[in-house]
Amino acid sequence: MIYFQAAYHRRLIHCWALVVEMIKVGIVGGTGYTGVELLRLLASHEKAEVVAITSRSEAGISVAELFPNLRGYYDQLRYSEPDVEVLSSCDVVFFATPHGVAMAMMPELVARGVRVVDLSADFRIKDTDLWAQWYGMPHSCPDIVAQAVYGLPEQNRAEIVNAQVVAAPGCYPTAVQLGFMPLLQHGLVDTSRLIANAASGVSGAGRQGKIDNLFAEVGDSFKSYAVPGHRHLPEIEQGLSRMTNEAVQLTFVPHLLPMIRGIHATLYAELNVDKCDLQQLFEEAYRDEAFVDVMPAGSHPQTRSVKGANMCRIAIHQPQGRNTVVVLSVIDNLVKGASGQAIQIMNIMFGLDEREGLKGLGLIP
Amino acid sequence: MIYFQAAYHRRLIHCWALVVEMIKVGIVGGTGYTGVELLRLLASHEKAEVVAITSRSEAGISVAELFPNLRGYYDQLRYSEPDVEVLSSCDVVFFATPHGVAMAMMPELVARGVRVVDLSADFRIKDTDLWAQWYGMPHSCPDIVAQAVYGLPEQNRAEIVNAQVVAAPGCYPTAVQLGFMPLLQHGLVDTSRLIANAASGVSGAGRQGKIDNLFAEVGDSFKSYAVPGHRHLPEIEQGLSRMTNEAVQLTFVPHLLPMIRGIHATLYAELNVDKCDLQQLFEEAYRDEAFVDVMPAGSHPQTRSVKGANMCRIAIHQPQGRNTVVVLSVIDNLVKGASGQAIQIMNIMFGLDEREGLKGLGLIP
Amino acid sequence: MIYFQAAYHRRLIHCWALVVEMIKVGIVGGTGYTGVELLRLLASHEKAEVVAITSRSEAGISVAELFPNLRGYYDQLRYSEPDVEVLSSCDVVFFATPHGVAMAMMPELVARGVRVVDLSADFRIKDTDLWAQWYGMPHSCPDIVAQAVYGLPEQNRAEIVNAQVVAAPGCYPTAVQLGFMPLLQHGLVDTSRLIANAASGVSGAGRQGKIDNLFAEVGDSFKSYAVPGHRHLPEIEQGLSRMTNEAVQLTFVPHLLPMIRGIHATLYAELNVDKCDLQQLFEEAYRDEAFVDVMPAGSHPQTRSVKGANMCRIAIHQPQGRNTVVVLSVIDNLVKGASGQAIQIMNIMFGLDEREGLKGLGLIP
Amino acid sequence: MIYFQAAYHRRLIHCWALVVEMIKVGIVGGTGYTGVELLRLLASHEKAEVVAITSRSEAGISVAELFPNLRGYYDQLRYSEPDVEVLSSCDVVFFATPHGVAMAMMPELVARGVRVVDLSADFRIKDTDLWAQWYGMPHSCPDIVAQAVYGLPEQNRAEIVNAQVVAAPGCYPTAVQLGFMPLLQHGLVDTSRLIANAASGVSGAGRQGKIDNLFAEVGDSFKSYAVPGHRHLPEIEQGLSRMTNEAVQLTFVPHLLPMIRGIHATLYAELNVDKCDLQQLFEEAYRDEAFVDVMPAGSHPQTRSVKGANMCRIAIHQPQGRNTVVVLSVIDNLVKGASGQAIQIMNIMFGLDEREGLKGLGLIP
């Protein structure tokens, strides 16, 4: 992990600030948790400004009325009906919508040359038949899927730079892929039976009035869900396969935590080599990454250490010196797992310092 | 799971009640969470009565002063200094103490013929060298370890009946062993790489003033701990080995949940048979058990469904029809994982209905 | 508070059990939190049996499928469409419904002689115009309101015995009225400016899919709500006025707690007498009550001490010896604040031991 | 509340940044929650740099080892033994210590001309006899108390500018005083019986291993505490008296919330005027304040809207149009209630933009 020494960056940024124009940002679907998180983070972004945010249901309402933490920062910004004209005038449009929405509007935006970061699942899976099967609807623009870039910067930074459409990875997929990546890229583990035991805070389920996500249902309890099959499974397997150039079989068991933010992935893999300094492997793999922090040997990352921060913290264990390696990987599902990563992607697309707008620390306690 | 139809049991119990004397119960170390939970459960036990409860630090204090939920039920009961005379006059003594305490007092109690249920770790592991290595002190009475019975009723009921000293299983070991048992007893899985990914509520860490267990440290966060090695690992491996009569290798990763009660174990094993009706296997294995509930196929047990109840709920999955079987197993760590199981053991030892004092339902919501 | 010595009650109950028939219970609207709580508590009731439970939306579904904590206790019981014939065959019918439902079915049930305990707000307020104003609909059977008894046993026990329709008090009103009652009955405080600052767990908001009650909205936060006017205000003022025989003005500010169960009321009143032993006053007032526990002087009752229990714990303070008395009153909103109190009412109506089915202790931790 | 339009401030700040030297900051007692919060906030401060942080118990340890959210920001900073030489070389020293520590070191620091912001209680109460009575020890430097400034910027900004020693207000006192201030300054309410019903997250109790603050003790429960008398009472009464120039009597009842951060104060006062536009009164009172946000009429501020942010959100109600005014006031106890306010004070002392380092938004969800 790169050192965030404030003093150093400050100087860098200031010079830049005098010459760069502000990037005009549009947000589609800004009433959910990834929407408000985009606004929270962009409030501290020195080179981007939100000029439009859409919501059919809340059109006309001030964003600060819906989310009072925004009061004083976005007092002029109101939700508006989605309008391609308005969105086309933006330099970049974020989709913070349920699946199916982005693909409906995408062809027109692409045609007009707008650059897009899609936080939804619409453009993540290259095999659109597989997508259709997991998401329960046919895909309406497979051609754009073909050109879209999967936006995991630590894996795909170069492709993101010039992409027009970037699919921001899902929350579980981010934590799981970053945890497995060095092992797979070096061919160190048996890829026929990987296991990802993951747990997410409730904000991952979105801001919809469902009984299952009530405080009285989730509080002081813990459960797994979707064990027979979760939509992030094909996305993760696709990503892992790309890292290793062979088919990968993953058992993926997500769980629901009685907390708001945070994903913790506990990854299991069988080593197929005798000796390997895994700690060193991971430290080298992520040495130049600002947002992946390989912790010292023996660590147990806590989700709160990344609460509100665009950061993935990773630790590696090999219990009892046996053959099974255990990787621990934590992110804030709304930041490195969604809105923070989307801004990181935008920074790459526009040639900015990748850390711009993403310097907040995790909230402890 | 046996049906708990209240009306039926009531009749049975009433007849019995007229002839049986009350069992006199002593509790050593009653100021922790397993201590107060013993008291809560025994308040509804029709055939047992707590006559002594010891605590050096709180001697003289009423139990209801320390735990106001007991007000109105135990208004005469006060903590007293541990006294072998007093304890020897009990029919059964529960140890709800940190490790090391029970083994120090045990020889004298055993000599006097008292029957003991030890909720601590002192008599769980048969290999006392292994015990010494994990618990950091030599074992002071290996001979009693040799005669002690490991008190997992679903596995060892017959041995418990006539035992003088029973070691109640740990909380993680209960959830994990009940989840793996049918698979191991039928030799269906590869025992060289079992995985138990488990998570516990904070009450499992006990009632001691440690920074790590403060609300401000645990709340709204999640982490693993003791990945290099947790004391329950040798206990679980010993138990699993007994089920299968061969050495077992388990990767055990415990996690700390931001909730009070409950353990959730997510178990992974590689099937070594082609076809097997796992649902039927589990249902048959636990058909006659009052406290193991095999849920319908496709279920995801929640810890809250057993909150406050002496119950283990289990579900079995085989995701994507692949080779990896996933067993989900939940208990309340303080009930089926500690005090409830101890009472279940006592009921077996004294020939009572196994359900006596253990009929409370889980608290939803 | 009466002493709950288990041994004593047991004997009493057993004799009784041989001669009393089981009371047949019907429940209307059993899919909410007060519904499942009625089922949980009645599972341990020795003299009552649930024979029917209705729900339009879940008709045909087993109650244990919706609420897995009930598995093993109610495996035969399924939700059915509401049917006056079936309900009329019950000895008592509980309404666990939103307001407006009970009053629609009540005339027919009353005509058939069924006894009813209504957990909803329909029959609590005697002034039906006032009711209509706060609940936003006209009242359809003011005549039954007139004959209905307000079911706060500690105040109205005698009237409940022979009542056909009993309106179980609301959750806040129970905690607030029990806290103020001795002060008002003895005319010790200025009734023109009472203050009730109260806070409730989220289960009080019911089991409906509303964004406001999501874990991600309520968790790790605290707020007041309905400060301009909450529906429980007129109910409380009516009850307090009855205690003192004069008009009462209450400022009532409810708050929403990031927890599931429990109400905590902090009550403020100005003493209009110079000297008064408030501790003794309260202890005497509730000496014979099984479900009101006046704690020792200087206490601070915790909501968890009554979690799952039918109990109201009260403490009285007079900070700095000044004129303002502070009463602290806690209940479990779903038990003493709803379903437990409804069962207590039923016990009174049918001449049973008032504690039957209500002997569970609060869950600590 | 002043508008935080990011674009505007950015420009302002950049110019300034080129000419101002960095302020050297020392922190005494940096292992508690206010210590780590100072570090988190100062990481984004453009004109201050932490050069020393002391802790006897953790001397030699990296701050990022203790608090992993700091990794990447403070990798060079280690705890050191307290040393007056080192601290004297700082421009400003923050005390984030238990009471009694600051007053022991203060004379020496003052003599050397260091400016100090004390987050502890040592210099808040002018009457040192009263202080001694509530804090259980004599005060060792009453002369410095006499010259110290009570650092509530919204009340005392002018005095802070040139102060050498500033006592940062307590968390409860901040929320309560800001909520009452406009009413008292305009003499609108009866000051002989004010009521402050307040509730705090557990982080307010500090980072010490006490049973009472364990997750298993605090979680899913709610209670009041210190009703007979809390140390913040004399501080608040002193502050309120100053606003109104007469003696003030306050009934102050604090409560402990099952959450980490946040204070919610619900204030009650009797109006002594017939008509008054309270909403307008408050809006005008705080019009020029960057960190007090008067919400629209009818609002209910949530603590989460200020989680992590240096902000006090206030709403005013007059329920039923009666005589009792209800003010709702929320802060993050660790930010506007401690470390954020301390930085705000420092900014005032050094002539910086008051918002520097304090621009983070509250975390929703």
Beta-strand proportion of chain A: 15-25%
In angstroms, what separates the terminal alpha carbons of chain A?
22 Å
For the largest beta sheet of chain A, what order do the strands appear in spatially? 3-2-1-4-5-7-6
Overall mean confidence score, pLDDT of chain A: 94
**Class inferred from helices and paired strands of chain A:** alpha/beta
| Separate helix tally of chain A | 13
Please outline the major beta sheet of chain A.
Answer: 7 strands, parallel
How many E-type strands of chain A?
Answer: 14
What order do the helices and strands of chain A follow?
A: HEHEHEHEHEHHEHEHEHEHEEHEEEH
Which descriptors would you attach to this protein?
homotetramer, 365 residues, alpha/beta, 7-stranded parallel sheet, 7-stranded mixed sheet, 13 helices, 14 strands, 19% strand, globular
Notes on the structure:
Four copies of one chain form a homotetramer. Chain A is of the alpha/beta class and 365 residues long. Helix content of chain A is 33%, strand content 19%. The first copy, chain A, contains 13 helices and 14 strands. In chain A, the strands form two sheets. In chain A, strands 3-2-1-4-5-7-6 form a seven-stranded parallel β-sheet, with helices on both faces. In chain A, β13 (312-317) and β14 form a beta hairpin. In chain A, α2 (33-42) crosses α13, α8 (153-161) runs parallel beside α13 and α9 (171-185) runs parallel beside α11. Chain A is globular. The two termini of chain A are 22 Å apart. Mean pLDDT of chain A is 94; it is low at 6-19. Chains in contact: A-B, A-C, A-D, B-C, B-D, C-D.
